[in-house]
Structures are given as structure tokens and as C-alpha cells.
Amino acid sequence: MKVSFAVIVLFFISIESTALKFDDEYFKLIKKNFQESQAIQGPISSDFNAFLSSNGYDDYDFARTDLGTIGSYGGKKSSQDQIAYTPIVFVHGNSDGALTDGSKYGTGWTSSITYFLSQGYTPAELYATTWGDRNKTNAYLRTHNCNTISRIRMFLEAVLYYSNADQINVISHSMGVAIARKAIRGGIIEGDDGVCELGPSMRARIKVFIGISGANYGMCQCTGGNKTAIYPTCNKKNGFWPGEPCELTNLISPQDLCGSPVTACSRNSYSQLLQEMNEDPYNEAQHVFSYWSYGDDLISYHDSVFGRPTSFVPFSNASRVFRDLDHMATKDKTPNIQNGYGDYDFARKDLNPTGSYGGKNSPQDQIVHTPIVFVHGNSDGALMNDTEYGTGWTSSIAYFLSQGYTPAELYATTWGDRVKTHAYSRTHNYTTIRRIRTFFEAVLQYSNADQINVISHSMGVVIARKAIRGGIIETEHGDFDLGPSLRAKIKVFIGISGANYGICQCAGGDEVAINPTCNKKDGFWPGEPCELTNLTSPQELCGSPTPICSRNSYSQLLQEMNEDPYNEAQHVFSYWSYDDKVISYNNSVFGRPTSLIPFSNASMVLRDLDHMATKDETPNIQYKLVTTYGF
Questions:
Q1: Residue 1 within any structural domain of the chain
Q2: pTM of the entire predicted model
Q3: 336 C-beta neighbours (distance < 10 Å), count
Q4: Cβ atoms of 436 and 416 closer than 8 Å
């Protein structure tokens, strides 16, 4: 399929007369955003504006009052307002702006700001300014130039200074991704408007960077020599030039060769500014995330540029791919995802005092033992909440403390809402696994440890295993990439009473259909018997003490992990009980012990302990395994 250059004009110009079709839901979203903009209005607050004026920022005109109430957003209502969350700066794309102007391609950050406000944020923690004139007919002229990038750089610095925050989060979209990346990275820009020096890197001041539907490797619509000459936005120095195919043919356009689903040969040279950023191994923030959609109507070609996903920010900690969202919807329909990446709320103060545990009492506290992270199971939590299945890790933590460990070496967070009636709906989903993976990364960074130990129980076993293994998680909403394996960072992994091959209660088609936790993609589905009988239920056939024939297919996520011959840590241990009334069937799933983690270094079977007791009554076993192999 040849994509005409009208598409690139859409990416940059967003012409109103485009023939692109939007579904009714998206039209409603645009209208809703515009209605919300009447309540969510800029410009920036008078308090923030006064700060800017008194600190030499007047020349940048961050308020953009020439655009009325949609040119900017953010700031305290009064100097006494408190800032509770890490401030967020939003950076828009070409011809877009801070807030919606009611047009299809000018939706701004209204949807995101509305959502963050609904989650408890205040305008003092949410900031946006417009960096262009919003004139869509000028879009083809815009580049990643000194003027624009310097402007965004100064806005980031102003928000840091004004909020007195140690770090900020940055969420960017479309052309704003590369602009924000360079603003953070600093250094020299050789632009079409001259050469400028931005200053040193700001990486240490950026906690989370999110790049949505950017063009980090350029755009295929900009390949073909005449494009770089005619359209400044495609230029080779600081534009979206993606490089050129090695060989041209009369049968296939340069654009189609660039966007071919089969990796096409290129000359390995593309936009100078993009290439210099992409080849720098230090990323933009403490945590970097990218996401995009195969259905992007402006980037096109399934996001591919000479075989690379152009919206992937190099060295991202994780990425996510949608299938059916168009270019603007990747921003406007995903504020919940933006919020999920930004603040994980590991403290879980909503569950005080049982929501989390761990950390130094003072920066001077020493860490002597290898830190341990505990991962609980379904409907459980970090610490005990006095319910039968809510014992948390209180028993284990108490034991380790009695053996000389300190809170600086013991960590737990709650990954669910602890509502027992929701248990059937929980799966090994991306949000939960991403949360636990980031918790591992946070403990590693905070403790400055080379490795950590992980002790997991019940549903937490599989969650922790996948969090460590990384890689792709396939869901009905798209494919999610957790990032590379953390195996080298895990010294000892202990899995207690997990369901690594599923649970027999999930056998039988009705269970898969009725209970999300039994689903075939990322649930506990154990597979199905080869033959059914009226005398024995599918569940009993699955749990028979005699190995029963199955179709050798079970939960996709479980099966992919179990067939990977590389395990989760330097030392892996599994143990369980035959008297577990939650897993049942003597722990058997089609003849396999479901609590055995494949390729474990050792395993142990206990008797007379129920599901929770395998965790709560065995801290001595956990301690022995950790101190023998993972001190």
C-alpha cells in the first residue's frame, strides 16, 4: 500500500477536511473534552505567573494568553497550596496545544488533566504550555529546533523551581516526544534555526518519562529525497527523515520499502538529532515508558520504520502496543495508563497500617543483608488485616526481624484491593505484574544492592515470576512489553503454594467463561482432559492422582514461562502442602505438582498445612533458604 504524502501532512497539519473516519465514540470524546475545557480552563494560575515574572521567564510567555483559556494550564491558587504528588508536565504534538480547542487534532491534554484531577491531583501538580501557534497549515514547517526545544526545557526547569520538587514526571505525545526527550537530555542542537547549547542533562530530575506515539526513528512518509527538500519537517538535520532504502525499485515506493513489515535494508543513517539521541545509552528518566498503536492513522505502517517501531523510546523500561487506537486516541483515551505509569503508590496509605512495609528509618541506616521483597497472593496484602486469607507477611517479617534483619532489608507492598469478593476477577494482568516489577526495580535502586531475594506465595508466585522474566504480555487490549529479564538481579527466589500449571477448579469450559481468573490467556486455566465422562467431572479428571491425558495446552502465560529453560534467579526453591484446601487435589494438575516451579534447584512437600499456613508457619524455612543461599 502506498501512503501518499497527504498522510504526513495529516501528522503535522491535521487538516480538518481529511477523509479519515472516526468512530462515534471518538467524536463523543472530542465533544466531551471540549465541554470539559469550559470547566478545566487556563491559563496558568496567577501565582505561577507571578513566580515566572519575578524569575526571568517573561520572554517565554508560558501563559500563552494569546490563545485565551486553552493556551496553558497549572499552578497553585495561592502560595500556601501544598503539593502532594510528583508534578507532571505534559508536552503536546505538532499543531496541538495545552488544552482542547474542540477540533479533531487539537484535543490537547484536557482528557488527561481531567482524569488526574479525578484521582486527587490538583492544578498545582499538573502543567502544560503551548509551544506552537496551533495553525495547522504551518505544521509542515515545524522541526525539532532550538527555539521550541529551549522553550520546553525552560518550562521543565520553571516547574521544578516553582514546585520545589526534587523530580517531575513528563508525559509527551507525537512530535512532543522527541522535543521533550531532547529538552531533558540537553547538550547541543544543530537546528535549521541555528546552533544552541541547552545545558547539562536533566535526567536526574525526571522520575517518569512517557512517550506516546512519537516518531523516534522518523517517519516513512519523509523518505524519498524530494521530501526532505520540499518539507522542512522532513529535513535530515533535525526533522523526521527516517533514512533511505538501500535499493529503490519502480514497483515499490521508498515509503513502502521503509514501512515494509519485513525488515528492509536502510543505510543506517537518519535524522541527525534523532540518531544522536537514540544512540546515547542513557535514557531520559528514572523510568521510561513508550506506547503506541498499530492503528495509528498518521504514523501508519504499523509504526514500523525500516523494521523498528518508531514510537519506541530506546532503552524504555517497558512498552505497550494497542491495536485499534488512532493517533490522537492513544493520548486522549489512555489517561488511566498514564496515571498507572506515573505513580504506583507503593505505600498504599489507603490500607494503613497494613498496605506496605520496609525502608530505612534514616539515610544513615546500613544494609547488611541482601534485601528481601515479599509478594503476596490473591486478596492478601503486605501485612495482616485479621481475616482468614489476609494474613500478609506479618509472620515472616517478624521472624526475619528477630534474626537480625532490619526494615531497610525487608519490603512488601499490596498489589490489589484486598476485597475477597473480587478474587474471581483477578488475573496475572499487565498492570499488576508491571507494578510488582517496578517495585523490584525501586528496591534495587533504593537499597543500592546488586541483587535482591524474592519470597512469593499463592498467586503472587506467578506474578513475581513474570515480573522478573520480563518480555511480552499479550492481552485482549494489545501486547505489553515489560522489558528485559531481571534474573541477574535476583539471588534467591522462593515460590510457596503457587499454581504454576493452573488449578483444576478452572478446568471445564464454563469456569473459563464465567470466572476471569480462569481465563486461557493470563489466568489459571489448567487445560482440559482429552476425554470427558459423565462419571467424573473435568476438575476431578484434572486432579486425579493417576496422570491423566490432557491436550498439553494450558494458560498461555503460564505455559510460556514454564517452557522457558532459564529460571527466575540464581537459586530457585518451591514448596507446598498436600493438605492445601485452596489448590486441592494433593497439588496435582494432570499429574504435575502445580506448585513446583520448573527448573527449581530444590523443592519440598509439607503435610498438614493449609494454604495460608504454608506461608505463615514456615518463616524458619524461608529464613534458612535465604541465609544459606542468598545472604
A1: no
A2: 0.62
A3: 11
A4: no
Please report whether residue 416 resides in a domain: yes
pLDDT of residue 139: 86
Asked whether residue 421 falls in the same domain as residue 538, the answer is yes
Half-sphere exposure of 38 (CA within 13 A, CB side): 6
Alpha-carbon distance of 438 to 350, in angstroms, equals: 20
509 & 590 share domain: yes
CB atoms within 10 A of CB 479: 15
| Each residue's pLDDT tens digit, 45-100 | 999 999 999 999 999 999 999 999 999 999 999 989 989 889 999 999 999 999 99
Q: How far apart are CA 297 and CA 324, in angstroms?
A: 10
What is the domain-level CATH number for residue 322? 3.40.50.1820
Q: Is the dihedral of CA 308, 309, 315, 320 positive or negative?
A: negative
Q: 321 with 395, same domain?
A: no
Q: What's 264's DSSP letter?
A: P
Query: Residues 347-358, buried b or exposed e (16+ Cβ, 10 A)?
Result: ebeebeebbbbb
- Residues 410-431 have pLDDT tens digits of 999 999 888 887 888 888 888 8
Q: Is the dihedral of CA 230, 234, 235, 241 positive or negative?
A: negative
Domain annotation covers residue 238: no
| 251, part of any domain | no
To which residue does cell 521567564 refer? 57
Mean pLDDT of all residues in 264-288: 85
CA distances from 623 to 185, 400, 402, 628 (A): 44, 7, 11, 8
Number of domains observed in the structure of the chain: 2
Of 312, 342, 372, the last residue of a domain is 342
Per the structure, the complete domain to which residue 562 belongs is given by 349-629
Give the C-alpha separation, 223 to 220, whole Å.
5
Q: Is the pLDDT of residue 611 over 60?
A: yes
Same domain, 482 and 565: yes
